[in-house]
Every structure is written in C-alpha cells, then in structure tokens.
Specification:
The chain is an alpha/beta fold. Helix content is 31%, strand content 17%. GO terms for molecular function: oxidoreductase activity, acting on the aldehyde or oxo group of donors, NAD or NADP as acceptor.
C-alpha cells in the first residue's frame, strides 16, 4: 500500500481471516461437524478463509465437540498424491514450528487440548502437524485472535444469539463466516449482523467464481471474482457531448 500510495495507484488486498462457524442447537449435527472439519483441516488449515473458530451453543457443546474431535483423530495424513490422505503437510518447517508455538501458547493461556497438538510420530518425512482441537477457549486468547494458518481449531461456547454475534464480530478479521441452523429466519438475521464479507449457511467452506470474494476490516480491501471484481480493474469515465 505504501508503494501504491506514492503513485496514487489503487490496490486490492486479501489479507487473511479468523473464520467463525456458529452452530446453533437446532443445527444438523453431522452436517455441521463435517463442515467444521473441512473448514479447518482442508489444506492443513492453510487457507485465508479457514474456519478456525467453532462458536457452539452450550446445549450441544459436548456432543458436537466429541464428534468433531473424533473426526479430527480419524483424519488420514499423507502427501498430496496419496489418494487415501485427507490432510497434507504444512508448507515448511518454519511454519510447522510457528503452529506448534501457537499450540503451546494455547495450553499456557488455559485452553483445553482435546486432541492433536503435536507432530505425528508415524510421519518422519514432511512437515506434518496433527489435526488439533482446543476447547474452553475464550475469545481474548491468542489462538482465538491471531491467524495461525495451520490445523488448529478453537472451540468457544455461547448462550444466546446476541453473544454468538458478539464473539464472532470481536475479531480484527472479517473474511468468511459460517452459520449452522435449521431456522432460515435466524440465519438471515445473523448473517445481516455479521461483519464479514462472505457468509455461508449450512455449508463451509464455499466460494464460487460468480460471487465476490473478499472481506472486512484487516481481511483486506476490494473484491475478486464475480461482477464486483471487474470494478477493481476499471475506471469510470464521464463523457459529455454538446449536440446543440
């Protein structure tokens, strides 16, 4: 942005996120668990739109966390050309060490490690990190606020819709958020008040080339994909002709 400012050049920025999956008590458990799993463990969590925060209603917390943790523990690890693998390594040893550092911070700050949290012993080659789930996370903890860019899920509990929105919006990022509920009226209401550039209802993650991709706050500026992306690469010109 500094270089662009010197030349008064417009920029489009995509800067990451800390995506929440908000799961209400009337959600389809299995569908939500699958979406939460895919949202954080796909690409070993190395996605700007990773759903790294699970914000779950207190009435279904125990059951959903158990399902998500079981899925995490059963995730086959392997290389990108391994047809049986469902999660690969992270990009480098430096990144792996950074992820492991965040895991240690999570423990020290009081979060409960449910599963994972280490390097898998059976993977001597490759920069693998176990699919990791933390429970008893509060939204002021480091693992709930900073983008880890790795397979680490933070579980936060809420009592009502208002609290769920407060937790989700209390983030420096605002890229992609997920809502899980069988009540579409609630889904539309919650979506309206979420400070995120993209909202997925009862699925996660999802983006299409035809729809705009981008976020609010520190998640970036401008949009890619969809008709909106065209505006980032064009300028308006006003031409007046006197025909009198």
């Amino acid at each position: 942005m500094e270089n662009a400012a010197e030349n008064v050049t417009g920029v489009t920025l995509e800067l990451g996120g800390k995506g929440p999956n908000i799961v209400f008590s009337d959600a389809d458990f299995e569908a939500a668990a699958k979406g939460v799993h895919n949202g954080i463990f796909m690409n070993a969590g190395q996605m700007c739109w990773a759903g790294s925060r699970l914000i779950v209603h207190e009435d279904i917390h125990d059951e959903l966390v158990d399902i998500v943790a079981t899925r995490a523990e059963g995730t086959p690890l392997g290389s990108g050309i391994d047809d049986d693998a469902r999660m690969g390594p992270v990009v480098s040893d430096d990144q792996r060490q950074e992820i492991l550092g965040y895991i240690e911070i999570g423990k020290k700050e009081g979060a409960t490690l449910v599963t994972g949290g280490d390097v898998p012993v059976e993977k001597e080659r490759g920069f693998f990190v176990e699919p990791t789930v933390f429970d008893d996370v509060t939204n002021d903890m480091t693992i709930a606020r900073e983008e880890i860019f790795g397979p680490v899920l933070s579980v936060i509990t809420f009592e009502d819709e208002k609290e769920a929105l407060e937790i989700a919006n209390d983030s420096p990022y605002g890229l992609l958020a997920g809502i899980w509920t069988s009540d579409l009226t609630r889904a539309h209401t919650v979506a309206e008040y979420l400070d995120y550039g993209m909202i997925s209802v009862n699925e996660y993650p999802v983006t299409f080339p035809q729809t705009p991709f981008g976020g609010y706050k520190e998640s970036g500026y401008g949009r890619e994909q969809g008709r909106e992306a065209i505006h980032e690469y064009t300028q308006v010109k006003n031409i007046n002709v006197n025909l009198g």
